[in-house]
């Protein structure tokens, strides 16, 4: 499902118990300096990420100040964020004009809030220009936070260079059948550099049958509920997508690679390291 960019008025783009991706939550909050927003998402743990600008986040008695180093866009610096446990209310105050992403996953375990600073980001780069799969992933809530987070995975994905594919070899994670695959709902929000760039999101829901394709632009949101879902960016442009994964029974992601393309796992440099970082 493709959700075209719009002024959401700080209301959820993917709300609680969404009919396609009920395990995920997503909101974009835009604030001027000095403005505040209260985030209260019952039944979901969340992560507040400063896409641009700087914020202070209060969770209970704890205050996390100076979150966010980016000014111009998501290519400007490393991400920073705050983990908010299920049942907690977060108050966001903008220190400067800001855009915040609020990512969430359904969860019934309560953990302690914490900040993810620039130095805490876990990066991985894989692929190559030759295979048209060169990209970088910045894990905000990744593998290193197992035991401190319930079901939520949050990362930022960048194509390296101008043009190319992401999410390939095609994979899916819509069925709980361990150890082969886990059920994880997924939500993306895309950005392009320059902003007038665009790309393509494929969605093949049934093996051996043609799927759907969406024209994605700066600010597009995509809900991945079922099937194989590679995407591509036009030549001459960089692509970024904020990624939210919510697991049904566990946090580690087990991807099932489409058999017709799975052999290419052996040809793409570093892809096995990338797969391991989501587990």
TrEMBL record:
Residue ranges crossing the lipid bilayer per the database entry: none
GO molecular function, one term: glucuronate isomerase activity
Keyword Ion transport on entry: no
GO BP term (any one): inositol catabolic process
Pfam families (alphabetical): KduI (PF04962)
Organism: Paragemmobacter aquarius
Protein keywords: Isomerase
Protein name per its UniProtKB record: 5-deoxyglucuronate isomerase
PANTHER family associated with the record: 5-DEOXY-GLUCURONATE ISOMERASE
InterPro entries: Deoxy-glucuronate_isom_IolB, KduI/IolB_isomerase, RmlC-like_jellyroll, RmlC_Cupin_sf
Organism lineage string: Bacteria, Pseudomonadati, Pseudomonadota, Alphaproteobacteria, Rhodobacterales
């Amino acid at each position: 499902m493709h959700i075209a960019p719009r002024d959401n008025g700080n209301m959820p783009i993917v709300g609680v118990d969404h009919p396609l991706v009920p395990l995920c939550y997503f909101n974009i909050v835009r604030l001027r300096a000095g403005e505040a927003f209260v985030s209260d998402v019952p039944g979901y743990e969340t992560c507040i990420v400063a896409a641009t600008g700087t914020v202070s986040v209060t969770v209970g008695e704890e205050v996390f100040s100076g979150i966010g180093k980016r000014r111009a866009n998501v290519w400007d610096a490393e991400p920073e964020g705050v983990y908010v446990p299920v049942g907690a209310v977060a108050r966001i105050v903008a220190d400067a004009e800001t855009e915040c992403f609020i990512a969430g996953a359904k969860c019934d375990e309560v953990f302690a809030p914490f900040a993810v600073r620039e130095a805490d980001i876990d990066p991985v780069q894989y692929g190559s220009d030759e295979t048209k799969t060169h990209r970088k992933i910045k894990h905000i809530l990744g593998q290193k936070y197992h035991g401190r987070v319930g079901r939520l995975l949050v990362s930022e994905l960048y194509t390296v260079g101008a043009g190319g594919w992401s999410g390939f070899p095609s994979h899916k994670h819509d069925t709980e059948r361990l150890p082969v695959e886990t059920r994880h709902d997924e939500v993306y929000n895309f950005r392009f550099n320059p902003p007038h760039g665009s790309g393509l999101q494929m969605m093949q829901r049934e093996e051996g049958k043609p799927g759907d394709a969406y024209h994605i632009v700066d600010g597009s949101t995509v809900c991945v509920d079922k099937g194989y879902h590679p995407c591509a960016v036009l030549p001459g442009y960089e692509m970024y997508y904020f990624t939210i994964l919510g697991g049904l029974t566990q946090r580690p992601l087990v991807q099932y690679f489409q058999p017709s393309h799975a052999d290419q796992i052996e040809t793409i440099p570093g892809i096995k390291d990338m797969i391991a970082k989501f587990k």
